[in-house]
Amino acid sequence: MEPTTAAMGSARWGAGTGRDASRGVAREVLEETGIKVEAERLTGVYKNMRLGVVTLAFKCSIIDGQGEEDTTDEARQIAWLTVEQATRQMPEARAIRVVDAVASTDCPAVRVHDGTHLL
Fold first, then answer.
1. 28: domain CATH number?
2. CB-based contacts of 13: which residues, under 8 Å, 6+ apart?
C-alpha cells in the first residue's frame, strides 16, 4: 500500500482475555477478504460516544493474496481510496481513521465521535 492510499474496512473481532489485537485484525482480514496482512502499528483509538464502542485502527501491510471471489458482502464494499477521496466520500468519523493511518507519527491518535462527526 502506498503511503497516500488506504483501504477502509471493518474487520471485527472480539477482544477477549488473552487475545492479541494485531493478530486478531490479521486473522479477520484474511477470513473476510482472502488477503494476508500484517499489522504494522496501532494508528488510532476511536470512541463512539453515542454507542459507547471503542475501535482500534491498525495500519497493515499486504503479505499475500488478492482477495477471494467468495468473500462477504461487507468485504466487497471495501475500496482503495486516496486520503482526499476518503475525506470527501466518508463520514468525518470514518475518514479521520484514514488520515490518521497515513500520518507520519509514532503516537496513535485518540479521538471521540458521535458515529458521524468528531466531537
1. 3.90.79.10
2. 19, 24, 25, 27, 28
Tens digit of each residue's pLDDT (9 = 90 or more) over 64-80: 877 666 667 767 777 78
pLDDT digits (tens, 9 = 90+) for 7-30: 555 555 555 556 788 888 888 888
Q: Compute CA distances 100 → 1, 68, 76, whole Å.
A: 15, 28, 23
Neighbouring-strand partners of residue 109 = 44
Domain membership of residue 76 (yes or no) is: yes
Are residues 25 and 60 in contact, defined by beta-carbon separation less than 8 angstroms? yes
Other C-beta atoms closer than 10 Å to the C-beta of 93 total 19
Closest CA to 3 of 102, 109, 78: 102
Per the structure, the complete domain to which residue 98 belongs is given by 5-113
Q: What is the pTM of this model?
A: 0.77
Name the 3-class secondary structure at 80.
strand
